[in-house]
Amino acid sequence: MGVNVELNDKVNIFCEAINMKITFLGAARTVTGSCYFIETDRYKFLVDCGMFQGRSKEDAQNEEPFPFNPGDLDFILLTHAHIDHSGRIPKIFLDGFKGEVIATKATVELCGIMLPDSGHIQEFENEWKNRKRLRAGKPPIPPLYTHQDAVDCLKLFRKEPYGKIIVLNDEISIRFNDAGHMLGSAIIEIWVKENGEKTKLVFTGDLGNSDIPILRDPTILESADYLIIESTYGNRLHIDKSNKTDLFVNIINSTLDKGGNVIIPSFAVGRTQEIIYELNKKRERYNGTYEKIMSVPVFIDSPLAISATEIFRNNLDCYDEEARSYVENGDNPLDFAGLQFTRTPEESKALNERTDSSIIISASGMCEAGRIKHHLKHNLWRPECTILFVGYQAEGTLGRRLLDGAKKVKIFGEEITVNARIEMIEGYSGHADREGLLSWIGSMRRKPRKIFIVHGEEDSMLDFANAISDEFGIETIIPFRGESYVISRERVYESTAKAELDAITRRFKRLEILDMLEKLKEELDEASEIVINDLKQETEDSFVDSLMERLKSVEKSIVDVIR
Ligand SMILES: [Zn+2]
Fold it and tell me: How far, in Å, from the CA of 300 to the mean position of ligand 1?
């Protein structure tokens, strides 16, 4: 067939006027903001409509208008409830989208609490920004969306089961399959009928490990014409599982011995429940230690925690056999004596007044928003405490800065010294590692013609692309944000409009500057701190003189640039 493609190019060009097109609007050479826009001859839809997470650059990207009229969109398919996949649904609803958001039952239920919570966070952070704007004499701006907007958009959601082929219209059918990443997460198969033939796209969404406890493993698919696959851990291997629980027990144990708190930034339920489940299963192995850990209060500090736990109980069909048999035998590994939920802000604040050790699990997982920021503020400066990361930390997030070894961080405008122990256990990630991703592709009976690599940082994507080509000889594409590809059953070609390409380049330049300025601000803050700490004059005068000279010249250049 491949040979004929070249000969038939002229014919194809004629046909391709009505071939579908996919535009990569997010999670392109980055991990957040998942959003893919697909246009067939008669329908337009999105797969995911996620929020960009990070700093000013990402905030700016969330504010950008969609590059199409949201009112023209027929529907949105949602892979899972995480905010970086679902978080802009209330925004697109405000912008005029009136179609259905189609997802699994558990995803719809989780969105029912996570999106309104995200609205709360938007309002809260917006209030903070507006206070600053008012002081600077600027008019206030509205939040990206409010709690109420998010509640309102929930009426668009439609629940569908796993494993059933759903005919959406005369051209498009879909099926949700287990992705093993979080409760309700799905790999979506999409069949598009065009020009008398069917083309099958597969979006992995976030793909889990096959050994994630509680959830069923990712479904092995029969085939795909084109695969759009995540690559968060495309260049890494997770530590083995037994090791991981040992590490977890050791970190907690030594922190408790020192009288400190363990702070775990995590989406309040999913990951936490998995860890507890693992511990419970292996309690004999840690004789004594397990009981000790379990005798310490474990606080799930999240207004969502209780409702999210109910959603877990409501969706037993998403559990693997082992977890289901525990529950059926009356031993719910997700509940234990020391577990406490804190719902109100007052209860949450009271946690910071406690003097004895505790384990506090609080969202958001990447420390960008929510109650976790208060716990970091109160615990980061204490050397006896530990901040334990159990999930991926995207570039540009507070979590990533801590992992990268920041000595000081700013939280709510206050500078906090980092004295606490910072740890990360990677194996808890809800994402498959390189081996997991490759073996999932490998188990497909009919392999994809081409693979689009998304949802990863650039290094990881490039390594993963090489691994795919070495192992399967399949060509890969790593799209940039805003790039479009025309897809037919036989071939793919890039077709980003010239005007759109120019706009992307111009936009990138501006966003890049935001990043540079933010880094510069941090460097300067750090430099001030060094000087303040040296008021006792321990540094040589000659060094201070040369620093002064260099700073004067930098100051002059910066002022010149701004002018
Ligand atoms: Zn996810």
Answer: 20
